[in-house]
Design goal:
This protein is an alpha/beta fold. 39% of the residues lie in helices and 18% in strands. Strands 2-1-3-4-5 form a five-stranded mixed beta sheet. A hairpin with a 4-residue loop joins β4 and β5. α4 crosses α5. The longest helix has 19 residues. The structure holds zinc ion.
Length: 161
Amino acid sequence: MVSRSRMENTADHGQHPYAVIVTCSDSRVVPEFIFSAGIGDLFVIRGAGNTIDDCTLGSIEYAIAHLGCKLVVVLGHTSCGAVTAAVQGIRERHVSNITDRIQSCLCGEKDIGCACRKNILNTLRIVEDDLPERHDVRYVGGIYDIREGTVEFFEDLHETE
Ligand SMILES: [Zn+2]
């Protein structure tokens, strides 16, 4: 929701988002709608297949260190096209930068639903392993169902493997 007063407040006093959302570029996945959030609430990092690289890690690190984010959510989604392309072995110019990265964590998984979960968990692991450990920051993974509009958070990283 766009709030004029929120726009003015954040323009005057800066942003203090409560969460970092690492998610897919898919147009059906809109974090602000999914979490009923407004301007200044979420620090969103998007890339096809919610993949992660050094620039993405830098963005997360910045949000934690300088904006005070205490929650990092890696949010994948059902029927992810990037994951599907990786499962199908599609390699096209720059797209292969994404599909190769996803494919490397799938261990031959062919079921798209399972592959989406593995990809989310892989991104979550990279984020947790590469960023400085802080006891006051929580990292969670979740999958958004594009048909139902619901998010299932992963309680236990090993549960879905
Ligand atoms: Zn996707």
